[in-house]
Design goal:
Elements lengths: L4 H14 L5 H13 L3 H6 L7 H15 L4 H5 L1 E4 L2 E4 L12 H8 L6 E5 L5 H9 L4 E6 L2 H14 L5 E5 L10 E6 L14 H6 L2 H4 L7 H13 E10 L5 H10 L2 E8 L5 E8 L8
Parallel strand pairs: 3-4, 3-6, 4-5, 6-7
Antiparallel strand pairs: 1-2, 7-9, 8-9
Helix pairs in contact: 1-2, 2-4, 6-7
The structure holds glutamine.
Glutamine binds next to helix 7.
EC number: 2.1.1.297
GO molecular function: nucleic acid binding; peptide chain release factor N(5)-glutamine methyltransferase activity
Keywords: Methyltransferase, S-adenosyl-L-methionine, Transferase
Length: about 290
Amino acid sequence: MSATRAGLLSDAIRLLAEAGVGDPARDARLLARWASGLEAAAFAARLDEPPGVDEAARFATGLGKRIARQPMSQIMGSREFWGRRFEVGPDVLDPRPETETLIAAALAGPAPRRVLDLGLGSGCILLTLLAEWPCASGLGVERSAGALAVARRNAEALGVAGRADLQPGDWFDAVRGRFELVVSNPPYIPEQEVEALEPEVRGWEPFAALSGGADGLAAYRAIAAGLEGALAPGGRAILEIGAGQEDDVAAIFAERGFALAAAHRDLDERPRALEFRRASEHPGRF
Ligand code: GLN
């Protein structure tokens, strides 16, 4: 008699635990269900049946990748972000729930006519904002050709490609004109700390999307240097930051004439998205 789904599942949990995976039961179940193509309830009701041949092969392949510590999103090919599905692969940063803090902060303000996203990755920030603001258009820049291709497919899939100008470039290279909203989730991990991150991140996510140079702040310096020319009068710039970077990043922007208008906190209560305005337009916080 061939093994049932339940039997394969318990073998998989043991193998993932041996590989050091953080939540082996959750991942094994998600992989098994993904391989089956069934909805959660149908899958649960059919645990005592053996899987089909294709399903078993898909499960074995996925399991092998997870044992090699490839992230679940890359194995399954997508990740949910702000309620929408984004294609994800080894060329892009896996969209993080923390980044939804930036989305909430942006949506709490007035809808802009044009949004600029520096460092698109999967496009999760810009494309979410365009989907939420049907009258806005946006420019997104990304220096990795692989990531740009993923972002373009995501724009098509979400039906916002007609309003999203996605261009290759390094920070402000491809930027023309001014924007009422500038957003970015730049790489901000100090270079020498990348190696100490968990295997899923250091082994599978693009180094360039993670490393912010020796002190983790290189991208903020580049963005602060070009922001004056790209931000429309009265506009807002919202940037994601790493743990403990609030004061350093605020100082970098203050030097260029931008005042910290708000520090938006994530679910752990850490300042996660800093909102800047021109200091001349926002004297309050100084
Ligand atoms: N904007 C993308 C994201 O937030 C990519 C960010 C990055 O590559 N550092 O996921």
